[in-house]
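Example protein was shown:

_____
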Amino acid sequence: MGLIRALFLIIHIIVVALLCGTLLNAYVPPKIFGYLNMLSLGFPVLMTVHFCLTLFWILTWKKRAIVFLLISLMFFNPVRRWINYTPDSGKEGSLKIISFNTKNHAYAKHKNEDELFKFMDKENADVVLFQENRFEGEHPGYLQYPIVALKTRHKLLKHGNIIETAANGNAFYADIEIHGKIIRFINVYLEPFMLEKSMVRPTADADLNTVKAKNLIRRLVPTFKLHQEQIVYIRKAVKESPYPVILTGDFNSVPNSWEYYHLSEGLQDAFVVAGTGSATSFHDYKFPIRIDYIFSSKEIKPKSYKVDRSVKLSDHFPVIATFDF
C-alpha cells in the first residue's frame, strides 16, 4: 500500500505541475513556446485526475490532502471557465445575442436551412453572429463576410474587415445602434486546425499512434502561432473601438489557452458572469470542448448565458446570452 501511495503522490505532483503550466499560457506566447498551449486542451482531464487523487488523500486521512486542497484554489477561476454556477442565472436582460457556428456555410443548399431560420425566428435575438456560414442570395438584415456573417433587426452604422492575414479564419466588426446605444460587435472565426476524427482516434497499433501524435502536434502548434498573429488585429479593433464591445465567435481555442487569456483581456466572459452548468459547445468529439464564446465590455452586463443543446443543426451548439446596459 505504501508503494501505491508513493506512486499516486508522484502522479499527483506531475498533474499539479501540468495544471500550473496552463496558467503560464497567460504569459508565454505560442511563438515563444507553442507546446505549452497544448496543456489547455487537457485541462478537464488533468483537473479530474487532480480531484480524484485529492479525494483519495482525504479518504485515507493524509495531511497532504490539505496541501492539495489549498492548491485547488489556484484553479477556481480556470474551472469556472468550463463549469460554472451563477445563483441568479436565467434572469434575462434586454439585449439578446446568439453566436452559432453553423458548420456548412452554404445552408441555402441544405435542407436544414429552414430549421435554422425557424430557430432564429423563435429566439428573436437582437443580433445573431454566424461562423462557417454563407447564405446564398439576398436576406434582409444580413451582413456577410467570408466565413463569418451577422443578422440584426437594428440599424447598422458601420462595418469592416479585421484580420488582414487570414487563411481559413476571419473576423469583422459591425457598429450597431440598439435601443439608443451603439455597440461594436466583433465576430471571430480564428484559424481552424482542419482536424478529422481519424487524426485523433487511437488505434491498437502503438507505432501508428506515435505517428498520429507527431502529426497532430505539427498541426496544432503552427495554428497556435497563426492565432497569435490574428489576435493582434482583433485586440486592435477592441482597443480602438469608440463604443462598448461585444466580442463573440468560434475561437478554435479552449479556456485557459493563450488565445482565451488575450482575447478576454479587459472584457467579461458572459458564461463566467451569468452561466450555469457546462459551457461545452462543440460536440463532434466525445470530449468536453468549449470553443464558442461571448465576451463584453464592462458597461454591458451579462444577465444570462445558455448553450442550447436542443439545436442539432451543426457540430456546434448555439450559445445565447442576454445583457443589460
About this structure: The first helix runs from residue 2 to 23. Residues 193 and 223 are 6 Å apart (CA to CA). Residues 105-110 have pLDDT under 50 and may be disordered.
